[in-house]
Specification:
This protein is an alpha/beta fold. The protein has 10 helices and 8 strands. It has a domain of about 160 residues: Rossmann fold (3-Layer(aba) Sandwich). Strands 4-5-6-1-7-8 form a 6-stranded mixed beta sheet, sandwiched between helices. It has a two-stranded antiparallel sheet with strand order 2-3.
Length: about 240
């Protein structure tokens, strides 16, 4: 399932997300993953769990190494986690999963469009078949039609792979399109959490009502939601 985390800039949503994958140390509360409290686990004990806690970054231009081929970028976490056997096939599968042709394996970051780069970021995060994925503002730098395609892809992959996704966004139209549940944050605290339909139909907090009223909720053209394939690469 996909849970949205929304709030104004500075509300703490990215801090919460990074704490969930233990990139930041939580100052309070607890983090439970797969039935285990991982809040204060030392890095040595946390390391074996990291393959199941992955992140898709906001800006693939900064998160993808410009000196490495796309194949090398996707293969890196596989090698780091002892899954270096049959790398070519694993990379091919990862590319196919996100709708990119095999020819992209030999390309570099600068040869791809913004949407294609973000697909590579998704492929890298999912190469290890994780259980939990943090997606932090991953469509904020894309045009609306490309956003819709990436959202549809993420929704499809979450269902196919049984992923739990925490999706951070300031855009309520994106949250409404993708997420089954929503967490609303303000000044570092969760002020409301509910099913998506309930949140938009009958928000309980005045802060949530103000967020909904302040942000336009555009209709998404259904033609934008077509999933590209290797035969019809995304632009």
């Amino acid at each position: 399932s996909v849970t949205g985390i929304v709030g104004e800039s500075g509300s703490g949503k990215s801090t919460l997300g990074r704490a969930l994958v233990r990139l930041l140390e939580p100052s309070a509360g607890s983090i439970n993953f797969d039935g285990r409290d991982i809040t204060n686990l030392p890095e040595a004990e946390l390391q074996p769990l990291r393959r199941n806690l992955q992140m898709i970054f906001q800006d693939p231009m900064s998160s993808l190494n410009p000196r490495r081929t796309i194949a090398s970028i996707i293969a890196a976490p596989l090698k780091q986690n002892g899954l270096g056997d049959n790398l070519k096939a694993r990379v091919a599968e990862a590319l196919q999963r996100v709708g990119l042709p095999q020819s992209f394996a030999s390309r570099y970051r600068h040869e791809l469009s913004g949407g294609q780069r973000q697909r590579v970021g998704i492929a890298r995060a999912l190469a290890l078949s994780p259980k939990f994925v943090l997606a932090d503002e991953i469509v904020s730098g894309l045009d609306v039609s490309t956003q819709a395609q990436i959202l549809t892809l993420l929704e499809q992959l979450a269902a196919e792979m049984g992923l739990t996704v925490a999706f951070i966004s300031h855009d309520l139209s994106v949250i409404r399109r993708l997420c089954r549940q929503v967490i609303v944050m303000r000044e570092g605290a969760i002020v409301e959490a509910s099913a998506t339909d309930a949140l938009f139909d009958k928000p309980r907090q005045s802060y949530t009502r103000d967020l909904i009223a302040a942000i336009p909720l555009p209709e998404i053209d259904a033609s934008w939601l077509d999933i590209p394939s290797a035969a019809k690469p995304p632009t």
